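Practice record 12: protein with adenosine monophosphate.
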Amino acid sequence: MPFTKLGLSEAMVHGVKAMGYVEPTPIQLRVIPSILAGQDVIGSAQTGTGKTAAFALPILSQLGSHAPGPRVLVLEPTRELAAQVETAFRDLARFTDLRVAVVYGGVGYGVQTSAMRSGVDVLVATPGRLLDHLQRGTFKLDAVQFLVLDEADRMLDMGFLPDVRRIVERCPRQRHTSLFSATIPPEIDSLVKWAMKSPQTVEIGMRRRPAETVKHVIYPVADDQKADLLRDLLERVNYDSVIVFCRTKHRADRIGMMLRKNNHAVAVLHSNRTQREREDALRGFRDGRFEVLVATDIAARGLDIANVSHVINFDVPQHPEDYVHRIGRTGRAEASGDAFTLMVAEDESHVRAIERFIGQQVERVKLGDFTYRYTRLFEQPKAGEATATTVQKVRGARIRGGYFYGPVRRRR
Ligand code: AMP
C-alpha cells in the first residue's frame, strides 16, 4: 500500500516523498491507521524499522497548522535520541508551518526557553530537563493532545519512570498516548495500564531476530587477546564505518585510545562525555571524519546512524535484546552489514541466552593468520553445538584475510 492510501495529510505525503521513502514499512502500515483513528498504541519493532515516522506522520497529519502548544510531547531516554527524533519531525513537517523544539540536559536553558516561549507545536524532550523547565514555569503541558513515550524500556533501565509519571500527570487526561518499547516488563505494563486507554498492541514479527541482511558471527578468543584480535580485525576488515560496543565507559576509553594509537580515526561515545563531545562524536561519525565509533550500549541504543558497515561487540551484551539492538545498527535500509562478537570463556552463558532469544545459533569463526592462545572455547563441541570447527565459508564476508576454515586443534 502506498503512503497516499493511508489517510495522511497532503503535507505529510509530500514530506515522505521528499525524504525518499517509497512505501511504508510494516510498522508504519500498522501504526499509522491506528493513530489516525485515535487509538492508543503500544508498538514494538526492531530498531531501524521506521518506528519514528510511524508515530510522527499520523500525529503531524492531525495537527493542521501552527497553534499554541505544545500539542505533541515525545519523551526520549537520551539526548541523542531526542535530537534525532526532533530532526525526523522537522524533516517530515517541512511542508507545514508547524514548529518543533527539543529540550535535553547538558546544555544551557536559554535557547530552549526562548524556543518554547516563541511557541512550538511539537516538543521532544528527555524527562529530567523537561521537569526542570516545568518547575521553572517556562511552559505548561496543558495543551498536549498527543503523548509519545518512546523507548520506554530504556527509560525504565535508566531510572526515569518516576519522572515520566510526574510528566504524564501534568498532561491533560483527554489525550492520545502511544508507547514504544522493545520489551514490556511489569513496570512498563503498569505504566501502560495507568497512562493509556485500551491500547492496541502492534508487534512487528521477528522482533527478536536480527535483520536478515546482517551477517553475524562470533569470534571466540582468550580474554587477554581481545584487544589484539580487535586491532587485527579492524586491519583486515574492509569497512566503511564501524561501531565498537564496550561494556563500560572505562573500556570504551581504553579501546578508543588503543585504536587511535593504531592510526584509526576514532570517536568515543558514552555518558561521561560532555554534551559537546557527544555531539561532536556523532556528527564526526556521520560525516565520515571518524571511521570508528567506540560506544557503550546506553549511549548508542536506538541512534539512527546511517551506513554503518560493521558492528563489533568487543564485549558480549549482558541482555539478549541488546544484542539485537546493537547489531541493528548495521544492515539498515537494506544494505548488508557484518556484526562480529568477541566471546571469551565466561561469556558462554550470555551467548547461549542470546542464541535462545534470537532462535538461532551464531556461527563461530576464527581470523586467519591470527596467533590464537588457547581458550576452552576451542574444545571439541558437544553434538549439535556450533563451534569454529563447523564453520562454513561465509558468503559475502568482507574480510580480506579470509576466515579460518580448518579444524581447530585441541590442546594436548
Ligand atoms: P527509525 O526506526 O525510526 O529509527 O528509522 C530508521 C531509518 O529508516 C531512518 O533513517 C528513517 O529515515 C528511515 N525510514 C523510515 N521510514 C522509511 C520508509 N518508509 N522507507 C525508507 N526509509 C524509511
